[in-house]
Write a sequence for this structure.
RNA sequence: GCCCCCAUCGUCUAGCGGCCUAGGACGCCGGCCUCUCACGCCGGAAACCGGGGUUCGAGUCCCCGUGGGGGCACCA
Protein backbone atom coordinates (compact mmCIF):
# COMPACT_ATOMS: atom_id res chain seq x y z
CA UNK A 1 0.00 0.00 0.00
CA UNK A 2 1.74 3.08 -1.21
CA UNK A 3 -0.91 5.62 -0.42
CA UNK A 4 -2.05 5.75 3.15
CA UNK A 5 -5.43 7.31 3.67
CA UNK A 6 -5.15 10.69 5.35
CA UNK A 7 -8.25 12.58 6.39
CA UNK A 8 -8.87 15.54 8.60
CA UNK A 9 -11.44 17.23 10.75
CA UNK A 10 -11.12 21.00 10.59
CA UNK A 11 -13.49 22.83 12.92
CA UNK A 12 -13.36 26.53 13.65
CA UNK A 13 -13.34 27.36 17.35
CA UNK A 14 -16.05 29.96 17.00
CA UNK A 15 -18.75 28.13 18.91
CA UNK A 16 -19.59 24.92 20.73
CA UNK A 17 -18.95 21.63 18.92
CA UNK A 18 -22.12 21.31 16.89
CA UNK A 19 -23.89 18.03 16.20
CA UNK A 20 -23.37 18.46 12.48
CA UNK A 21 -19.64 18.95 12.94
CA UNK A 22 -19.45 15.91 15.14
CA UNK A 23 -21.01 13.82 12.44
CA UNK A 24 -18.38 15.05 9.99
CA UNK A 25 -15.68 14.25 12.52
CA UNK A 26 -17.14 10.80 13.08
CA UNK A 27 -17.26 9.96 9.37
CA UNK A 28 -13.71 11.12 8.85
CA UNK A 29 -12.51 9.20 11.87
CA UNK A 30 -14.32 6.03 10.81
CA UNK A 31 -12.97 6.36 7.30
CA UNK A 32 -9.44 6.67 8.66
CA UNK A 33 -9.81 3.76 11.06
CA UNK A 34 -11.50 1.57 8.47
CA UNK A 35 -8.63 2.08 6.06
CA UNK A 36 -5.91 2.03 8.67
CA UNK A 37 -5.23 5.65 7.81
CA UNK A 38 -4.43 8.85 9.63
CA UNK A 39 -6.92 11.21 11.24
CA UNK A 40 -5.68 14.78 11.45
CA UNK A 41 -7.14 17.48 13.65
CA UNK A 42 -6.80 21.02 12.40
CA UNK A 43 -8.20 24.07 14.13
CA UNK A 44 -9.33 26.67 11.63
CA UNK A 45 -8.83 29.77 13.67
CA UNK A 46 -8.13 32.31 10.96
CA UNK A 47 -11.12 34.28 12.13
CA UNK A 48 -9.28 35.64 15.15
CA UNK A 49 -12.14 37.87 16.15
CA UNK A 50 -14.55 35.00 16.72
CA UNK A 51 -12.15 32.22 17.71
CA UNK A 52 -11.51 31.53 21.37
CA UNK A 53 -9.34 29.09 23.32
CA UNK A 54 -12.42 28.06 25.32
CA UNK A 55 -14.20 26.87 22.21
CA UNK A 56 -11.10 25.06 21.10
CA UNK A 57 -10.96 23.26 24.44
CA UNK A 58 -14.62 22.35 24.13
CA UNK A 59 -13.94 20.84 20.72
CA UNK A 60 -11.02 18.76 21.95
CA UNK A 61 -13.00 17.64 25.00
CA UNK A 62 -15.94 16.69 22.85
CA UNK A 63 -13.83 14.60 20.50
CA UNK A 64 -12.11 12.85 23.37
CA UNK A 65 -15.44 12.16 25.04
CA UNK A 66 -16.69 10.58 21.84
CA UNK A 67 -13.54 8.51 21.51
CA UNK A 68 -12.54 10.16 18.26
CA UNK A 69 -8.81 10.24 18.81
CA UNK A 70 -6.59 12.01 16.34
CA UNK A 71 -3.20 10.94 15.09
CA UNK A 72 -1.78 14.31 14.12
CA UNK A 73 -2.37 17.79 15.39
CA UNK A 74 -4.09 19.76 16.58
CA UNK A 75 -2.62 22.10 14.03
CA UNK A 76 -3.72 25.70 14.12
CA UNK A 77 -3.97 27.88 11.08
CA UNK A 78 -2.92 30.84 13.18
CA UNK A 79 0.48 29.17 13.50
CA UNK A 80 1.01 28.66 9.80
CA UNK A 81 1.28 32.19 8.45
CA UNK A 82 4.63 31.66 6.80
CA UNK A 83 3.37 28.64 4.92
CA UNK A 84 0.48 30.63 3.48
CA UNK A 85 2.74 33.57 2.66
CA UNK A 86 5.11 31.31 0.81
CA UNK A 87 2.28 29.80 -1.23
CA UNK A 88 0.93 33.22 -2.01
CA UNK A 89 4.32 34.19 -3.39
CA UNK A 90 4.19 31.17 -5.65
CA UNK A 91 0.85 32.28 -7.01
CA UNK A 92 2.15 35.81 -7.51
CA UNK A 93 5.27 34.58 -9.26
CA UNK A 94 3.16 32.60 -11.71
CA UNK A 95 0.73 35.49 -12.18
CA UNK A 96 -2.06 33.22 -11.01
CA UNK A 97 -3.08 35.96 -8.74
CA UNK A 98 -3.46 39.69 -9.36
CA UNK A 99 -3.78 42.74 -7.13
CA UNK A 100 -7.27 44.14 -6.72
CA UNK A 101 -7.79 47.69 -5.57
CA UNK A 102 -11.54 47.65 -5.47
CA UNK A 103 -12.89 48.77 -2.12
CA UNK A 104 -15.07 46.43 -0.08
CA UNK A 105 -17.90 48.97 -0.16
CA UNK A 106 -17.75 49.18 -3.94
CA UNK A 107 -17.80 45.42 -4.23
CA UNK A 108 -20.75 45.18 -1.92
CA UNK A 109 -22.65 47.73 -3.99
CA UNK A 110 -21.94 45.87 -7.21
CA UNK A 111 -22.95 42.61 -5.60
CA UNK A 112 -26.31 44.00 -4.63
CA UNK A 113 -26.79 45.43 -8.06
CA UNK A 114 -26.10 42.08 -9.70
CA UNK A 115 -28.48 40.34 -7.35
CA UNK A 116 -31.15 42.90 -8.13
CA UNK A 117 -30.71 42.31 -11.85
CA UNK A 118 -31.02 38.59 -11.29
CA UNK A 119 -27.46 37.78 -12.13
CA UNK A 120 -25.01 35.62 -10.25
CA UNK A 121 -23.05 38.09 -8.18
CA UNK A 122 -19.54 37.76 -9.39
CA UNK A 123 -16.45 39.90 -9.46
CA UNK A 124 -16.49 41.83 -12.70
CA UNK A 125 -12.76 41.52 -13.21
CA UNK A 126 -12.01 45.20 -13.51
CA UNK A 127 -8.63 44.84 -11.79
CA UNK A 128 -7.81 41.67 -13.65
CA UNK A 129 -5.96 43.44 -16.42
CA UNK A 130 -5.90 46.92 -15.01
CA UNK A 131 -4.23 49.18 -17.57
CA UNK A 132 -3.96 52.31 -15.43
CA UNK A 133 -1.50 52.54 -12.56
CA UNK A 134 -2.68 51.38 -9.14
CA UNK A 135 -3.94 53.99 -6.71
CA UNK A 136 -1.13 55.28 -4.58
CA UNK A 137 -0.79 54.30 -0.95
CA UNK A 138 -3.39 51.52 -1.07
CA UNK A 139 -2.63 47.90 -0.26
CA UNK A 140 -4.41 45.54 -2.67
CA UNK A 141 -6.20 42.31 -2.03
CA UNK A 142 -4.97 39.42 -4.17
CA UNK A 143 -7.38 37.67 -6.43
CA UNK A 144 -7.08 34.37 -8.17
CA UNK A 145 -7.05 34.49 -11.95
CA UNK A 146 -9.79 31.91 -12.39
CA UNK A 147 -10.17 30.34 -15.83
CA UNK A 148 -13.17 31.86 -17.62
CA UNK A 149 -13.72 29.26 -20.29
CA UNK A 150 -14.55 25.61 -20.07
CA UNK A 151 -15.87 23.60 -17.18
CA UNK A 152 -14.58 21.82 -14.12
CA UNK A 153 -15.70 18.34 -13.19
CA UNK A 154 -15.08 16.75 -9.86
CA UNK A 155 -15.95 13.18 -9.04
CA UNK A 156 -17.48 13.17 -5.63
CA UNK A 157 -17.25 9.87 -3.77
CA UNK A 158 -20.80 10.24 -2.51
CA UNK A 159 -22.49 12.14 -5.31
CA UNK A 160 -20.66 11.10 -8.42
CA UNK A 161 -19.48 13.46 -11.15
CA UNK A 162 -20.42 17.11 -10.77
CA UNK A 163 -19.68 19.62 -13.47
CA UNK A 164 -19.53 23.36 -13.02
CA UNK A 165 -19.08 25.92 -15.78
CA UNK A 166 -15.95 27.94 -15.13
CA UNK A 167 -17.90 31.05 -16.01
CA UNK A 168 -19.70 30.50 -12.71
CA UNK A 169 -16.45 30.66 -10.80
CA UNK A 170 -15.43 33.89 -9.21
CA UNK A 171 -11.99 35.45 -9.06
CA UNK A 172 -11.64 34.59 -5.41
CA UNK A 173 -9.66 36.70 -3.02
CA UNK A 174 -6.72 34.69 -1.75
CA UNK A 175 -5.27 37.34 0.52
CA UNK A 176 -7.03 40.31 2.01
CA UNK A 177 -5.62 43.79 1.75
CA UNK A 178 -4.30 43.42 5.29
CA UNK A 179 -2.28 40.45 4.09
CA UNK A 180 -4.26 37.71 5.81
CA UNK A 181 -5.16 34.67 3.71
CA UNK A 182 -8.76 33.63 3.14
CA UNK A 183 -10.51 30.35 3.77
CA UNK A 184 -10.53 28.78 0.32
CA UNK A 185 -6.83 29.43 0.00
CA UNK A 186 -5.72 28.14 3.39
CA UNK A 187 -7.88 25.05 3.14
CA UNK A 188 -6.16 24.03 -0.05
CA UNK A 189 -2.71 24.85 1.24
CA UNK A 190 -3.34 22.99 4.47
CA UNK A 191 -4.90 19.93 2.90
CA UNK A 192 -2.18 19.78 0.27
CA UNK A 193 0.76 20.27 2.63
CA UNK A 194 -0.70 17.88 5.17
CA UNK A 195 -1.04 15.25 2.50
CA UNK A 196 -4.80 14.86 2.91
CA UNK A 197 -6.00 12.19 0.50
CA UNK A 198 -9.75 12.37 1.14
CA UNK A 199 -11.66 15.51 1.91
CA UNK A 200 -14.85 14.43 3.64
CA UNK A 201 -16.98 17.39 4.60
CA UNK A 202 -20.44 18.89 4.58
CA UNK A 203 -22.52 19.53 1.51
CA UNK A 204 -22.22 23.26 2.15
CA UNK A 205 -18.70 23.07 0.72
CA UNK A 206 -19.71 21.42 -2.51
CA UNK A 207 -19.87 24.70 -4.41
CA UNK A 208 -16.42 25.65 -3.15
CA UNK A 209 -14.84 22.52 -4.49
CA UNK A 210 -14.38 23.44 -8.16
CA UNK A 211 -12.81 26.70 -7.06
CA UNK A 212 -10.43 24.86 -4.82
CA UNK A 213 -9.60 22.44 -7.57
CA UNK A 214 -8.13 25.31 -9.57
CA UNK A 215 -6.07 26.42 -6.61
CA UNK A 216 -4.64 22.93 -6.27
CA UNK A 217 -3.75 22.93 -9.92
CA UNK A 218 -2.14 26.36 -9.89
CA UNK A 219 -0.08 25.33 -6.90
CA UNK A 220 0.90 22.12 -8.62
CA UNK A 221 -0.51 19.81 -5.98
CA UNK A 222 -2.28 16.53 -6.69
CA UNK A 223 -6.01 16.56 -6.10
CA UNK A 224 -7.46 14.68 -3.16
CA UNK A 225 -10.70 12.75 -3.46
CA UNK A 226 -13.78 14.63 -2.35
CA UNK A 227 -16.84 13.37 -0.51
CA UNK A 228 -19.66 15.70 0.41
CA UNK A 229 -22.13 14.43 2.94
CA UNK A 230 -25.61 15.78 3.26
CA UNK A 231 -26.45 18.30 5.93
CA UNK A 232 -28.51 17.77 9.06
CA UNK A 233 -31.78 19.70 9.14
CA UNK A 234 -34.03 20.42 12.08
CA UNK A 235 -37.52 18.88 12.33
CA UNK A 236 -38.88 21.98 10.56
CA UNK A 237 -36.47 21.33 7.67
CA UNK A 238 -34.57 24.46 8.52
CA UNK A 239 -30.97 24.52 9.60
CA UNK A 240 -30.45 22.62 12.81
CA UNK A 241 -29.96 25.04 15.65
CA UNK A 242 -30.56 25.73 19.32
CA UNK A 243 -34.23 26.17 18.59
CA UNK A 244 -34.49 22.43 18.04
CA UNK A 245 -33.13 21.65 21.49
CA UNK A 246 -29.66 20.57 22.39
CA UNK A 247 -27.32 21.04 19.47
CA UNK A 248 -23.83 20.67 20.87
CA UNK A 249 -21.85 17.83 22.31
CA UNK A 250 -21.34 19.70 25.55
CA UNK A 251 -25.08 20.03 26.01
CA UNK A 252 -25.82 16.40 25.31
CA UNK A 253 -23.19 15.37 27.75
CA UNK A 254 -24.66 17.70 30.35
CA UNK A 255 -28.16 16.34 30.00
CA UNK A 256 -27.08 12.77 30.51
CA UNK A 257 -26.39 11.23 27.13
CA UNK A 258 -23.85 8.51 26.55
CA UNK A 259 -21.23 9.08 23.90
CA UNK A 260 -21.87 5.72 22.25
CA UNK A 261 -25.54 6.61 21.82
CA UNK A 262 -24.71 9.91 20.17
CA UNK A 263 -22.15 8.30 17.89
CA UNK A 264 -24.51 5.47 16.95
CA UNK A 265 -27.30 7.93 16.22
CA UNK A 266 -25.15 10.23 14.14
CA UNK A 267 -23.74 7.33 12.19
CA UNK A 268 -27.18 6.02 11.26
CA UNK A 269 -28.24 9.50 10.28
CA UNK A 270 -27.39 9.33 6.61
CA UNK A 271 -25.58 6.02 6.60
CA UNK A 272 -26.92 2.52 6.79
CA UNK A 273 -25.98 -1.10 6.69
CA UNK A 274 -29.09 -3.05 5.79
CA UNK A 275 -31.52 -3.10 8.66
CA UNK A 276 -28.95 -2.86 11.42
CA UNK A 277 -29.57 -0.15 13.99
CA UNK A 278 -27.10 -0.86 16.75
CA UNK A 279 -23.40 -0.75 16.01
CA UNK A 280 -20.51 -1.39 18.34
CA UNK A 281 -17.43 0.74 17.77
CA UNK A 282 -15.72 -2.17 16.10
CA UNK A 283 -18.67 -2.82 13.79
CA UNK A 284 -18.74 0.84 12.82
CA UNK A 285 -15.12 0.73 11.83
CA UNK A 286 -15.40 -2.58 10.01
CA UNK A 287 -18.55 -1.74 8.11
CA UNK A 288 -18.18 1.95 7.36
CA UNK A 289 -17.94 3.08 3.77
CA UNK A 290 -18.81 6.20 1.83
CA UNK A 291 -20.89 4.24 -0.72
CA UNK A 292 -23.66 3.71 1.81
CA UNK A 293 -24.08 7.40 2.53
CA UNK A 294 -27.29 9.11 1.60
CA UNK A 295 -27.25 12.03 -0.82
CA UNK A 296 -30.27 13.85 0.52
CA UNK A 297 -30.44 16.12 3.52
CA UNK A 298 -31.41 14.35 6.71
CA UNK A 299 -33.75 15.49 9.43
CA UNK A 300 -32.64 15.30 12.97
CA UNK A 301 -34.85 13.15 15.17
CA UNK A 302 -34.19 13.58 18.91
CA UNK A 303 -36.67 10.80 19.77
CA UNK A 304 -34.55 8.16 18.18
CA UNK A 305 -31.44 9.46 19.88
CA UNK A 306 -33.27 9.19 23.20
CA UNK A 307 -34.22 5.62 22.41
CA UNK A 308 -30.63 4.77 21.59
CA UNK A 309 -29.48 6.41 24.79
CA UNK A 310 -31.94 4.33 26.78
CA UNK A 311 -30.69 1.27 24.96
CA UNK A 312 -27.06 1.92 25.81
CA UNK A 313 -27.99 2.79 29.37
CA UNK A 314 -29.63 -0.62 29.69
CA UNK A 315 -26.59 -2.32 28.22
CA UNK A 316 -24.09 -0.54 30.42
CA UNK A 317 -22.18 -2.29 33.18
CA UNK A 318 -23.60 -1.09 36.52
CA UNK A 319 -20.14 -0.28 37.72
CA UNK A 320 -19.51 2.02 34.80
CA UNK A 321 -22.95 3.51 35.28
CA UNK A 322 -22.11 4.45 38.85
CA UNK A 323 -19.04 6.32 37.68
CA UNK A 324 -20.96 8.07 34.92
CA UNK A 325 -23.68 8.94 37.38
CA UNK A 326 -21.56 10.91 39.82
CA UNK A 327 -21.68 14.29 38.06
CA UNK A 328 -25.48 14.05 38.01
CA UNK A 329 -25.95 13.11 41.63
CA UNK A 330 -25.78 16.52 43.35
CA UNK A 331 -28.55 17.93 41.16
CA UNK A 332 -30.70 15.00 42.25
CA UNK A 333 -29.92 15.74 45.88
CA UNK A 334 -27.49 12.90 46.44
CA UNK A 335 -24.07 13.48 47.93
CA UNK A 336 -21.32 11.88 45.92
CA UNK A 337 -19.40 10.83 49.05
CA UNK A 338 -22.44 9.11 50.43
CA UNK A 339 -23.04 7.38 47.13
CA UNK A 340 -19.50 6.12 47.04
CA UNK A 341 -19.54 4.98 50.65
CA UNK A 342 -21.58 1.83 49.98
CA UNK A 343 -20.65 0.33 46.66
CA UNK A 344 -23.04 -2.59 46.84
CA UNK A 345 -25.91 -0.26 47.46
CA UNK A 346 -24.86 2.12 44.70
CA UNK A 347 -24.60 -0.76 42.27
CA UNK A 348 -27.99 -2.07 43.27
CA UNK A 349 -29.59 1.33 43.06
CA UNK A 350 -28.18 1.96 39.61
CA UNK A 351 -29.20 -1.49 38.44
CA UNK A 352 -32.72 -1.04 39.75
CA UNK A 353 -33.23 2.10 37.69
CA UNK A 354 -31.20 1.47 34.58
CA UNK A 355 -33.96 -0.02 32.51
CA UNK A 356 -36.34 2.65 33.71
CA UNK A 357 -34.15 5.58 32.69
CA UNK A 358 -33.45 7.13 29.36
CA UNK A 359 -30.74 9.52 30.46
CA UNK A 360 -28.25 9.78 33.29
CA UNK A 361 -30.32 12.62 34.69
CA UNK A 362 -33.32 10.32 34.96
CA UNK A 363 -31.15 7.62 36.42
CA UNK A 364 -29.82 9.96 39.08
CA UNK A 365 -33.32 11.05 39.96
CA UNK A 366 -34.43 7.45 40.26
CA UNK A 367 -31.47 6.45 42.36
CA UNK A 368 -32.00 9.39 44.68
CA UNK A 369 -34.94 7.63 46.35
CA UNK A 370 -32.49 5.32 48.06
CA UNK A 371 -30.51 8.18 49.54
CA UNK A 372 -33.21 10.53 50.75
CA UNK A 373 -33.26 11.12 54.48
CA UNK A 374 -36.99 11.56 54.56
CA UNK A 375 -39.91 10.44 52.51
CA UNK A 376 -42.09 13.11 51.02
CA UNK A 377 -45.45 11.68 50.11
CA UNK A 378 -46.90 12.55 46.80
CA UNK A 379 -50.21 13.98 47.95
CA UNK A 380 -52.46 12.01 45.68
CA UNK A 381 -50.52 8.80 46.13
CA UNK A 382 -50.82 9.05 49.91
CA UNK A 383 -54.51 9.84 49.77
CA UNK A 384 -55.17 6.85 47.57
CA UNK A 385 -52.94 4.22 49.13
CA UNK A 386 -52.24 5.18 52.74
CA UNK A 387 -55.74 4.60 54.00
CA UNK A 388 -56.48 3.73 57.65
CA UNK A 389 -57.82 0.25 56.94
CA UNK A 390 -54.34 -0.77 55.90
CA UNK A 391 -52.92 -0.18 59.34
CA UNK A 392 -53.25 -3.81 60.40
CA UNK A 393 -51.61 -4.93 57.19
CA UNK A 394 -48.67 -2.67 57.81
CA UNK A 395 -48.38 -3.81 61.39
CA UNK A 396 -48.32 -7.41 60.46
CA UNK A 397 -45.76 -6.70 57.80
CA UNK A 398 -43.54 -4.83 60.22
CA UNK A 399 -43.65 -7.78 62.53
CA UNK A 400 -42.75 -10.25 59.82
CA UNK A 401 -39.94 -8.09 58.50
CA UNK A 402 -38.45 -7.67 61.95
CA UNK A 403 -38.52 -11.40 62.45
CA UNK A 404 -36.55 -12.04 59.29
CA UNK A 405 -33.16 -13.59 59.79
CA UNK A 406 -31.71 -12.19 56.65
CA UNK A 407 -33.07 -9.10 54.98
CA UNK A 408 -32.59 -10.16 51.39
CA UNK A 409 -34.99 -10.07 48.49
CA UNK A 410 -36.11 -13.66 48.78
CA UNK A 411 -36.84 -13.36 52.47
CA UNK A 412 -38.64 -10.07 51.97
CA UNK A 413 -40.76 -11.59 49.26
CA UNK A 414 -41.70 -14.44 51.58
CA UNK A 415 -42.69 -11.95 54.28
CA UNK A 416 -44.83 -9.93 51.90
CA UNK A 417 -46.49 -13.02 50.51
CA UNK A 418 -47.23 -14.14 54.03
CA UNK A 419 -49.13 -10.94 54.66
CA UNK A 420 -50.89 -11.22 51.34
CA UNK A 421 -52.09 -14.71 52.14
CA UNK A 422 -53.18 -14.09 55.68
CA UNK A 423 -55.33 -11.21 54.51
CA UNK A 424 -56.53 -12.92 51.37
CA UNK A 425 -55.31 -10.11 49.16
CA UNK A 426 -53.51 -9.71 45.91
CA UNK A 427 -49.89 -8.62 46.07
CA UNK A 428 -50.71 -5.30 44.50
CA UNK A 429 -52.91 -4.38 47.44
CA UNK A 430 -49.91 -4.61 49.73
CA UNK A 431 -47.13 -3.59 47.39
CA UNK A 432 -48.57 -0.28 46.26
CA UNK A 433 -49.20 1.13 49.75
CA UNK A 434 -45.73 -0.03 50.73
CA UNK A 435 -44.26 1.69 47.72
CA UNK A 436 -45.87 4.93 48.74
CA UNK A 437 -44.81 4.51 52.36
CA UNK A 438 -41.22 3.85 51.38
CA UNK A 439 -40.71 6.15 48.43
CA UNK A 440 -43.60 8.58 48.54
CA UNK A 441 -44.37 7.68 44.95
CA UNK A 442 -46.47 5.20 43.02
CA UNK A 443 -43.62 4.31 40.72
CA UNK A 444 -40.45 2.53 41.66
CA UNK A 445 -38.44 -0.61 41.01
CA UNK A 446 -39.88 -3.87 42.32
CA UNK A 447 -40.96 -3.59 45.94
CA UNK A 448 -38.75 -6.44 47.23
CA UNK A 449 -35.78 -4.88 45.55
CA UNK A 450 -36.57 -1.48 46.97
CA UNK A 451 -36.83 -2.86 50.48
CA UNK A 452 -33.62 -4.82 50.25
CA UNK A 453 -31.80 -1.77 48.99
CA UNK A 454 -33.14 0.50 51.69
CA UNK A 455 -32.31 -1.92 54.45
CA UNK A 456 -34.42 -3.16 57.30
CA UNK A 457 -33.91 -0.18 59.55
CA UNK A 458 -35.13 2.38 57.05
CA UNK A 459 -37.93 0.18 55.79
CA UNK A 460 -39.33 -0.51 59.23
CA UNK A 461 -39.08 3.07 60.36
CA UNK A 462 -40.82 4.31 57.24
CA UNK A 463 -43.57 1.76 57.57
CA UNK A 464 -44.06 2.94 61.15
CA UNK A 465 -44.14 6.55 59.97
CA UNK A 466 -46.80 5.56 57.49
CA UNK A 467 -48.82 3.88 60.19
CA UNK A 468 -48.58 7.03 62.29
CA UNK A 469 -49.61 9.10 59.32
CA UNK A 470 -52.63 6.89 58.70
CA UNK A 471 -53.67 7.04 62.35
CA UNK A 472 -53.42 10.77 62.27
CA UNK A 473 -55.60 10.74 59.20
CA UNK A 474 -58.12 8.47 60.85
CA UNK A 475 -58.28 10.78 63.86
CA UNK A 476 -58.86 13.90 61.81
CA UNK A 477 -61.50 12.31 59.62
CA UNK A 478 -63.59 11.05 62.53
CA UNK A 479 -63.41 14.20 64.64
C1' G B 1 -32.52 35.85 -9.40
C1' C B 2 -28.50 32.51 -11.03
C1' C B 3 -25.62 27.86 -10.27
C1' C B 4 -25.23 23.00 -8.00
C1' C B 5 -27.28 18.83 -5.34
C1' C B 6 -31.34 15.78 -3.77
C1' A B 7 -36.47 13.04 -3.71
C1' U B 8 -39.58 5.35 -0.52
C1' C B 9 -44.13 5.55 5.83
C1' G B 10 -44.15 11.83 10.26
C1' U B 11 -38.51 10.67 10.79
C1' C B 12 -33.85 7.48 9.74
C1' U B 13 -33.72 3.86 6.08
C1' A B 14 -33.76 -1.47 3.03
C1' G B 15 -34.52 -1.83 -2.16
C1' C B 16 -29.30 -1.43 -6.84
C1' G B 17 -35.62 -4.09 -13.66
C1' G B 18 -39.11 -9.32 -12.14
C1' C B 19 -37.64 -11.99 -5.07
C1' C B 20 -42.50 -5.72 -3.50
C1' U B 21 -49.08 -7.90 -1.40
C1' A B 22 -42.69 -2.37 -0.72
C1' G B 23 -39.00 -4.81 4.56
C1' G B 24 -36.63 -2.83 9.29
C1' A B 25 -36.03 1.05 13.17
C1' C B 26 -37.82 5.49 16.11
C1' G B 27 -42.41 7.60 17.29
C1' C B 28 -47.82 6.55 17.54
C1' C B 29 -52.13 3.08 18.61
C1' G B 30 -53.93 -1.75 20.61
C1' G B 31 -52.82 -6.33 23.42
C1' C B 32 -49.81 -9.73 26.51
C1' C B 33 -46.52 -10.07 30.78
C1' U B 34 -47.11 -7.79 35.72
C1' C B 35 -46.63 -5.50 42.86
C1' U B 36 -46.32 0.18 40.11
C1' C B 37 -43.38 2.12 36.21
C1' A B 38 -40.24 0.49 32.78
C1' C B 39 -38.07 -3.60 30.04
C1' G B 40 -39.61 -7.58 26.97
C1' C B 41 -43.06 -9.95 23.61
C1' C B 42 -47.27 -9.89 19.99
C1' G B 43 -50.29 -7.07 16.64
C1' G B 44 -51.91 -2.41 13.94
C1' A B 45 -52.16 2.33 11.23
C1' A B 46 -48.44 4.72 8.12
C1' A B 47 -44.56 5.71 2.07
C1' C B 48 -42.51 4.61 -3.69
C1' C B 49 -43.93 13.50 -5.19
C1' G B 50 -46.62 14.26 -10.32
C1' G B 51 -46.48 13.52 -15.62
C1' G B 52 -44.28 11.51 -19.81
C1' G B 53 -41.11 7.91 -21.90
C1' U B 54 -37.64 3.05 -22.23
C1' U B 55 -38.96 -2.20 -21.39
C1' C B 56 -42.49 -8.25 -21.97
C1' G B 57 -42.05 -5.96 -17.03
C1' A B 58 -40.33 0.11 -13.27
C1' G B 59 -39.98 2.05 -6.41
C1' U B 60 -35.58 0.68 -9.31
C1' C B 61 -33.32 3.52 -16.01
C1' C B 62 -34.19 8.49 -19.02
C1' C B 63 -36.69 13.40 -19.62
C1' C B 64 -39.83 17.34 -17.85
C1' G B 65 -42.47 19.46 -13.87
C1' U B 66 -42.95 20.10 -8.66
C1' G B 67 -40.93 20.12 -3.91
C1' G B 68 -36.70 20.31 -0.52
C1' G B 69 -31.59 21.56 0.46
C1' G B 70 -26.97 24.05 -0.46
C1' G B 71 -24.03 27.92 -2.65
C1' C B 72 -23.34 32.77 -4.86
C1' A B 73 -18.32 37.74 0.84
C1' C B 74 -11.59 41.29 1.78
C1' C B 75 -16.94 34.55 6.80
C1' A B 76 -15.36 29.84 7.61
Amino acid sequence: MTDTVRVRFAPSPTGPLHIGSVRTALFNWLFARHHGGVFILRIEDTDIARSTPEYEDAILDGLIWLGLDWDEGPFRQSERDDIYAEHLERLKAASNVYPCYCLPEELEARRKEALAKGETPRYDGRCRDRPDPPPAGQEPAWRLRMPQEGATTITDLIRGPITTENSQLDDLIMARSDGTPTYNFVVVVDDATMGVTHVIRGDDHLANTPKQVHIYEMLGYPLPSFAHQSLILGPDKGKLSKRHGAASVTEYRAIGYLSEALANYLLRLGWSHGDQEIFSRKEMIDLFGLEAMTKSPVIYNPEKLLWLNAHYLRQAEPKRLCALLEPFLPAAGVGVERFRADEAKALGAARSWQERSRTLVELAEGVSMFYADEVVYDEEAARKFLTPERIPIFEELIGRLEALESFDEAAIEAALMGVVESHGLKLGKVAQPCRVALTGKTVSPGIFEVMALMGREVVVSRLREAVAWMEQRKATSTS
Summary: Residues 273 and 292 of chain A are 7 Å apart (CA to CA). Chain A has a mean pLDDT of 92.
